[in-house]
Design a protein that fits this description.
The protein is mainly β. It has four helices and twelve strands. Helix content is 12%, strand content 43%. A ten-stranded antiparallel β-barrel has the order 1-2-3-4-5-7-8-9-10-12.
Length: 185
């Protein structure tokens, strides 16, 4: 029997697109390609992933790259930012370059752990409430991430909020981005 850890590891790896959603709701969503590439040996335990997003309107300009560590007991994702974002931009499509990524190229984001829970045929992920996830200490805004991962789908709601007012400052205002896993040819 496959473990929940292994199922998440397998389901998460791949590239995704929300093109169907963006074409149906162009006022609210742009077409985005999202990669989750497993990086062998990145961390001493669990599984490491390099993740990157790019608008399909500007395919050569990735706008968000991060590193995740999938761990078990409890099932969770630890979030990391890259110390030098520019060095790794576009690495999702460059296995040779990505193979040089090391844990010391990353900084763990305190308060940004996403806890996963099995919900039937999917996994849901949520951060602890309270506004503890910030890209840099002292940031005026905090991040909240929620998602649902299926075997061929990834629905995610990533948003930023002003730490003083609680008002949303970035991210979708029309619900989750609905990504579908793309078949590799």
């Amino acid at each position: 029997m496959i473990s929940d850890f292994q199922r998440v590891r397998t389901w998460l790896a791949g590239n995704y697109s929300n093109r169907t959603q963006a074409m149906a709701e162009p006022v609210w969503f742009i077409p985005v390609t999202l990669w989750y590439v497993e990086v062998a040996g990145l961390f001493g335990e669990g599984a490491g992933f390099f993740t990157e997003q790019v608008s399909e309107h500007t395919p050569n300009q990735p706008y968000r790259s991060r590193v995740l560590q999938l761990l078990d007991n409890p099932l969770r994702l630890e979030n990391y930012r890259l110390k030098d974002q520019k060095v790794w931009a576009g690495a999702a499509k460059d296995p040779g370059r990505l193979g040089r990524l090391r844990a010391d190229d990353c900084e763990q984001l305190a308060g940004c752990t996403i806890y996963l829970e099995r919900q039937g045929e999917t996994f849901t992920g949520k951060m602890q409430p309270g506004g503890g996830c910030r890209l840099f200490p002292g940031d005026a805004s905090y991040i909240e991430i929620e998602f649902e991962l299926g075997e061929r789908s990834f629905f995610t709601l990533d948003r930023g909020f002003d730490a003083t007012t609680g008002e949303q400052t970035w991210g979708s205002r029309a619900g989750a981005y609905r990504y579908l896993k793309q078949l590799v040819e």
